[in-house]
Amino acid sequence: PFLPPSLGGAALGLANAQAMVGAQPNMEKLVEDHLAVQSLVRAYQVRGHHIAKLDPLDIGVIDFDESPVMLGLKKVGFYGLDESDLDKVFRLPTTTFIGGSESVLPLREIISRLEMAYCQSIGVEFMFINDLEQCQWIRQKFERPGVMQFTLEEKRTLLTRMVRSTKFEEFLQRKWSSEKRFGLEGCESLIPALKTIIDKSSMNGVESIIMGMPHRGRLNVLANVIHKELDQIFCQFDSNLEAADEGSGDVKYHLGMWHRRINRVTDRNITLSLMANPSHLEAVDPVVQGKTKAEQFYCGDTEGKRVMSILLHGDAAFAGQGVVYETFHLSDLPSYTTHGTVHVVVNNQVGFTTDPRVARSSSYPTDVAKVVNAPIFHVNADDPEAVMYVCNVAAEWRATFHKDVVVDLVCYRRNGHNEMDEPLFTQPLMYKQIKKQKGVLQKYSEKLLAEGAVSRQDYEEEIAKYDKICEEAHARSKDEKILHIKHWLDSPWPGFFNVDGQPKSMTSLSTGLPEEELVHIGYIASSVPVEDFTIHRGLSRILKGRAAMVGQRVCDWALGEYMAFGSLLKEGTHIRLSGQDVERGTFSHRHHVLHDQKIDRRICIPMNHISPNQAPYTVCNSSLSEYGVLGFELGFALASPNALVLWEAQFGDFHNTAQCIIDQFICPGQAKWGRQNGIVLLLPHGMEGMGPEHSSARPERFLQMCNEDPDTYPEFAVRQLYDCNWIIVNCSTPANYFHVLRRQILQAFRKPLIVITPKSLLRHPEAKSSFDDMLPGTHFQRLIPDSGPVCENPEAVKRIVFCTGKVYYELTRERNNRGNDDTVAIVRIEQLSPFPFDQVKVETDRYPNADLVWCQEEHKNQGYYDYVKPRLRTTVDRTRPVWYAGRGPAAAPATGNKAAHLVELQRFLDTAFNLDAFTEQS
């Protein structure tokens, strides 16, 4: 379609017409011609990339699904010009820089320069950006004549990097031809591309770069960008290499690395981290962003000038994975921005075996980046100098505007999906072309040899030099007998695990606080520590209620959380709480951020007024995202062990849209990648007749993934914590919630903590704790025994009902109604994993004549029963059966009918207290 000129261009053409071309018999024609030139310039800026020479294979897999692009010398008629106008001189509009120092050019030269700028090896998409300054900046970078010039030294450095990238893959293929390695063949220019971004960023003051990428090319990036020792990479191919006792480990092309080194171009120190990533290609994106944000936070880098991120993507994944969109939408949010990320897409022009035509609905795989106005630079990866130029511009853009930018490396995949795959099955024509394709190193070396930039002897010596490096590393790699995961840590915590050179004590510490500190924090939680701040009347009542609780020496769930957070902040622990609606709390219980009712955007966070020298408290409502945001918080928690990082689901049920982060990173992270992590997941849970999507945090899923053996009775409780892959608790009291949060920081190691949090208990009159349960000497109770009348004559007790969480209060109410206080003991298991075998044994021994019953409100095939039963049986050495009281099996987590919910509730309560029921069953 015809692209209209700007108003400025029209006025310019009219005002300067006579001065430019002298007497014109037809002033109207003169104005129209200048408007046409303005439109032509804009057409190249908008659509020039459509005819750019981007595809090294020249097979044109991109389908624009549009009318032909009206660009070129023979298309001027579309704009109202004709071939006789080609040699006429026109004044250039202010929206182009193709003239350099010249303000007028012949139309033929205008078109030639526009084609040089927009239709060669680089295609630029930027005209959708609605910021004039940013558009003008990009125009200057690509339109000015002669911008893409390189010195002799730069060309030689580029050739050296291409040699190392190419010969690394050839060496691996030569030594291990039958091994999968997901090599970089077909996109060898990725290595100089990344090194160029790093060089330019280092020049601009960046000291730390966190990177994430899929598996293709990972070994090459580790070797030639991060500078991982080659022998440590090569020994990974040894089938006789033994794994150390540090977990399962992972395949070599999933592993990460942390390295601090000198950047030889800038002669400055730079720290590079490549984050470990599973086969879930884009899952690492938000994790990288979270770690980047944390590093910026801890070094006071509020503008992203010292710490930045680079994300690598595959074309099919970039277009297809929703977490890419979620991550982009975090890019400008105040509590999540990393002040610009450089995205590099390795565009193979094919997925595993899937053509782009059936893999995406957009022309380019990069179109998702347009949602945040990120410029997109497409470049032919077989033109290394164009790649280098684009990457320099991308790094400059990020340093100038602190916004995301995308480099789309249009390349190909010389082998199949991996080195064992046969691509001709599914892409016969593409791979016939690829077999004829010269390698990019051969192309570029021939170019430089023809220019005289290098001699053949220098080129061959460079190849021989790198081959020698690889051979020597290969010889050293044979000495490696054991794989130590410590060599592959992407987030080391120096000094955390030792004190004065000695390992930290594993002793369980008291997590209680002096009463005066509880009172002080309680009154802060009940106040508005800012003058002339108007709060909502309903909130005034809530704060008064908190103050009354402090006076009565009790706390509810929200105040217990306040006590834990406030005390940790006072002790210097940074706390970050993130998730949908966490500032107020989904259930209107938290109110950590107060809003002035008269002044827009004026807020108060009382938690930041605990103590003059306290650590900062970050509480932030997230975007409506689970996958992206949980990944972000996980990355944040990886950066430092000295912070309490929590993510709260709006309802526990919703964690399933972040299941990839839970399954691939949080649950097995230490086993696969040697990374401890102390992230806390708060998952509201409870069967209260609210329907299948607002009831269950699916505790059975977390329990099923615990690494504990149900058939083995452990020796030490603290050792259980150290050996487990994560901790799962369902606290029934605010004091226990308070203690488990403080324990999370005070213990000598870090494990993920899954907290099944309540909904109705937030305001339950019985779900309150005395300050006595939070004083010095108190600690988290893994199990809470029955302290009622059953203790007076334990041998007369006929049943122990074990339970966890909210159902305890329903059980005690039912027991009181039935008058079974002295015959039925109710025992709460507060820590489900690791299972408190030792404390359960105390209870079963205390009541030797009692039946053992597990009671839960969840359905039998869900909840805790399948996890708890074998552990209870192990505890009693299988001498007593374990009976079940709860809802029957079901496909959905809960009924959507309130009446049916109440019938189910009463039915399983009847079962729990019918002392003859299980005898009859047996």
From TrEMBL:
It catalyses: N(6)-[(R)-lipoyl]-L-lysyl-[protein] + 2-oxoglutarate + H(+) = N(6)-[(R)-S(8)-succinyldihydrolipoyl]-L-lysyl-[protein] + CO2. Keywords: Calcium, Glycolysis, Isopeptide bond, Magnesium, Metal-binding, Mitochondrion, Nucleus, Oxidoreductase, Thiamine pyrophosphate, Transit peptide, Ubl conjugation. Its EC number is 1.2.4.2. Residues 555-764 form the Transketolase-like pyrimidine-binding domain. Its cofactor is thiamine diphosphate; Mg(2+). Belongs to the alpha-ketoglutarate dehydrogenase family. This is 2-oxoglutarate dehydrogenase complex component E1. Pfam families: E1_dh, OxoGdeHyase_C, Transket_pyr. It is found in: Mitochondrion; Nucleus. NCBIfam families: 2oxo_dh_E1 (TIGR00239), PRK09404.1 (NF006914), PRK12270.1 (NF008907). One of its GO terms (biological process) is glycolytic process. The gene is OGDH. The lineage of its organism: Eukaryota, Metazoa, Chordata, Craniata, Vertebrata. Its main location: mitochondrion. CDD domains: TPP_E1_OGDC_like. SUPFAM superfamilies: Thiamin diphosphate-binding fold (THDP-binding). GO terms for molecular function: metal ion binding; oxoglutarate dehydrogenase (succinyl-transferring) activity; thiamine pyrophosphate binding. One of its GO terms (cellular component) is nucleus.
